[in-house]
């Protein structure tokens, strides 16, 4: 069976004051369907914003942000649990930091856990453990974490579900004439070094971290697909039907 990593951003999973239940349910249903065809690892952002639905702490203060993440991680997982229960899918929570990839010993431990998880037909849900770590032990965004997860678990593909249809020739939020790029085989230095442009107050990455994730995987001969997580039509077409209509394939 092929293996895929699906990464979903905060903006897809949460609205200002709530978990975006309907969107999450659509995602859960797509993942359940995809599991018939692939071994799926879900990398889910959204702990900090889910925490904010419960307590209104100031996320710009580092310790408060960690507290938000610690509150939000259980809010997030309990929502996933309720929704995956509908489909009888058992989930597991795996929290990682950059250190989990810093040696062969560490990556082996992680690989073994993932392999055993699949053996028992469990869906692993991965997030960054940003609670007890120092800033230099963190990826800081789940785009690059998910690229590492994809590479080290031998996944064939990383799918990033974002608030945008794909990668455009310029930021479509500033330029209404921006055109989507269907295929990307090469990224230029200036694309990888542009300023960060996360779209919401809880998003940490913006397009740059997605491009860095793509570059990391392309360097290793793997593919990444960036598409819309609000409307999962392109993701479903791509994953289930093998059709690439919308969305950007980095290859
Ligand atoms: P997520 O929460 O899904 O990780 P982000 O807000 O971090 O999403 O990143 C996606 C945002 O990046 C888009 O909404 C868009 O505003 C911005 N962006 C900047 N340049 C581009 C570009 N060339 N193509 C697509 N999106 C871009």
From TrEMBL:
Keyword Coiled coil: no
Main location per the UniProt record: cytoplasm
GO molecular function annotation: ATP binding; glutamate 5-kinase activity
Source organism superkingdom: Bacteria
Broad EC category: transferase
Annotated binding of ATP, by residue: 7, 162-163, 204-210
Keyword field contains tRNA-binding: no
GO biological process: L-proline biosynthetic process
Entry GO CC: cytosol
Pathway: Amino-acid biosynthesis; L-proline biosynthesis; L-glutamate 5-semialdehyde from L-glutamate: step 1/2
Binding-site residues for substrate, renumbered to this chain: 45, 130, 142
Record localization: Cytoplasm
Function: Catalyzes the transfer of a phosphate group to glutamate to form L-glutamate 5-phosphate.
Entry similarity comment: Belongs to the glutamate 5-kinase family.
Protein known as: Glutamate 5-kinase
Organism: Sulfurimonas hongkongensis
Gene: proB
């Amino acid at each position: 069976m092929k293996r895929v990593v699906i990464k979903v951003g905060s903006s897809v999973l949460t609205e200002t004051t709530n978990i975006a239940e309907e969107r999450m349910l659509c995602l859960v249903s797509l993942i359940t369907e995809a599991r018939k065809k692939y071994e799926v690892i879900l990398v889910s952002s959204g702990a900090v914003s889910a925490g904010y639905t419960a307590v209104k702490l100031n996320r710009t203060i580092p310790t408060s942000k960690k507290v938000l993440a610690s509150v939000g991680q259980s809010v997030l997982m309990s929502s996933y649990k309720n929704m995956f229960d509908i489909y009888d899918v058992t989930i597991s929570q795996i929290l990682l930091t950059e250190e989990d990839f810093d040696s062969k010993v560490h990556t082996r431990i992680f690989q073994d856990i993932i392999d055993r998880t699949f053996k028992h037909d469990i869906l692993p849900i991965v997030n960054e453990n940003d609670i007890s770590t120092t800033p230099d032990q963190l990826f800081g965004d789940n785009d690059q974490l998910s690229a590492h997860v994809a590479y080290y678990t031998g996944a064939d593909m990383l799918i990033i579900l974002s608030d945008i249809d794909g990668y455009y020739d310029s930021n479509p939020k500033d330029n209404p004439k921006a055109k989507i790029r269907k295929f990307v085989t090469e990224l230029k230095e200036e694309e990888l070094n542009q300023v960060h442009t996360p779209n919401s107050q809880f998003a940490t990455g913006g397009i740059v971290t997605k491009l860095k994730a793509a570059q990391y995987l392309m360097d290793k001969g793997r593919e990444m697909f960036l598409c819309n997580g609000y409307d999962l039509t392109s993701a479903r077409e791509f994953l289930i039907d093998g059709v690439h209509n919308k969305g950007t394939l980095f290859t």
